[in-house]
Structure formats: structure tokens, C-alpha cells
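Sample entry was shown:
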Amino acid sequence: MLEARLRKIDGIQSAKVRGFDRESKFYFNLTISESKSVVPQTIRKMLEELKTETKGDEDYPYNSMELTSMTGKVEKAGEGWTFTARGSNEKYHLAPSAALKKMVDAGKVLATVAGKVTDENGKLKLEISDAKDPAN
């Protein structure tokens, strides 16, 4: 049921259960269209709508969102870092990794990154766990 709900979100091309554990329940692999933006708030909103529609019978807590691959432009201004996704133009504040810092120091502005996305206080933040040159 949850897979079908996730697939209905604009921009999600596929949703497959990746695993399950007692604490977090389900883990999903989502394939998201490059031109769309799906952020934690999008998922939390869908989960709240599901809970309301089922009168509380279906309650899936949101745990976290991690990206495995997203390409875009990295910018450093003073101490601040930003990442702008190539297709959707969604902007993220960055917590860069050593690999990303090295790429930027070498003059590269495009990167393919992986990491955890948070949206505390309405501010999107991407904590980089991996960064590499884009394939294309």
C-alpha cells in the first residue's frame, strides 16, 4: 500500500521496499525524476494524508531521507556552501565532505553527490557522504 502511495507523488518514478526493521519499519528505494523535487516535507505530507484517510489505522513514521546520487552545481561563498540540483534547480545548504572540498579546491563546480537530506526550520540541508565527478 505504501509503495503505491509513494509512486503517486509527482516526480517519483518508482518506489520499492528495500528492507524492514522493527525500529524504523520500512526502507524504500525511490527513483525520482531529475526535473522534479521530492524533499522530506513531501514524504511527511503524504504520510499525514494517509493517516488521516485511514483514520489513524495506517501510521508510518518518517525517519530520514538519503540520496544515493544527485548531480548539480556546488558553490562556496565564504564559509557557506550550496548545492543546486541540475534538473529541478532545488537549492540545498551543504555540509561538505572532504572529497567535495577537494573537488571545489581543484576548480570543479559540477558534482554528483550522495548524502542525508534534512529540512529543519524549512531550510534544506544536504550532509554529503560521497562526492565524485558527474558521469555526464
Notes: The mean pLDDT is 91.
